[in-house]
Amino acid sequence: MVSSGTLTYGTAATFPPFESKSAGGDFEGFDIDMISALADSMGLGTKATDMDFDGLIPALAGKRVDIVNSAMYINDARAAKVDFVPYLVIGESLLTPGGNPKHITRIPEDLSGKTIAVTRGAIGETYMNEYNDQLRQQGLPAMTVMSLPTNQDAMLAVRSGRADAFDTSTPGAATTLAKTGDAFTVAATFKNETKIGIAVRKGDTDTATAIRNALDRFVQSGDYDKLLAKYQIPADSSLFKSTATSTAPAGG
């Protein structure tokens, strides 16, 4: 461990409701609360290290953090570099200015010629590049993918008129709408069966097993469901059918 008795984790704290900072600078969100509970059941304290999303896996590989706790979507490219303990399944949303003035509804056709803001290194960037490949195959103009350091930057790009839409998670979209009123519209949702997980170093079975066991205890206690409700994350985002029979799924 980076520090004895402490679970040091990397996070990109600009992605509510999973991880963000309060006005007073404290870390908050679903992931923050969950990892504190898991670490406590492991007899450990926690220390958060905030960084840009695209620096998280390098920080883990460089042993500057013990785990990545940052709503990280699981895909083949990442699973080749790290191991995962999955804990949620969510989707992606495209948010436009209120009223959807560019009439973005069909994915990917309506993205042609548009500017879409994404978080650099996040899965939305990968999806938009894949959709660009599809647009080109259909003989349509590609979109401009505007890769920015944080989710907040992507949102501000739309607010300022520099982008036509920004990509975020489905729970993140709900949080944004709750905080901003009619400033944004959910134009489209997609990829609704994507798992997210806590990342550990490749081959670090001890840490992965300890976290998986702690997660199973957390689910069995009912606190996992309570945390979903606290952050208004839909119950169908759960990977666990029942807190009475749950077992944390293997990563990958």
Please, could you describe this protein's structure?
With 252 residues, the protein is an alpha/beta fold. The chain has two domains: 6-89 and 195-237, D-Maltodextrin-Binding Protein, domain 2; 91-193, Periplasmic binding protein-like II (D-Maltodextrin-Binding Protein, domain 2). The chain contains eight helices and ten strands. The strands form two sheets. An eight-stranded mixed beta sheet has the order 4-1-5-10-6-9-7-8, sandwiched between helices. A two-stranded antiparallel ribbon has the order 2-3. A hairpin with a 5-residue loop joins β2 (20-21) and β3 (27-28). α1 packs across α7. The longest helix has 16 residues, at 205-220. The radius of gyration is 18 Å and the shape is globular. The model has no long low-confidence stretch (mean pLDDT 94). Residues 6-234 form the Solute-binding protein family 3/N-terminal domain. This is ABC transporter substrate-binding protein. InterPro entries: SBP_3_CS (IPR018313), Solute-binding_3/MltF_N (IPR001638).
CATH topology of the largest domain: D-Maltodextrin-Binding Protein, domain 2
Task: Tell me the name of the CATH class of the largest domain.
Answer: Alpha Beta
Tell me the strand percentage band.
25-35%
Class from helix and strand fractions: alpha/beta
What is the number of beta strands?
10
Organism: Amycolatopsis acidicola
Protein name: ABC transporter substrate-binding protein
Pfam families: SBP_bac_3 (PF00497)
Family: Belongs to the bacterial solute-binding protein 3 family.
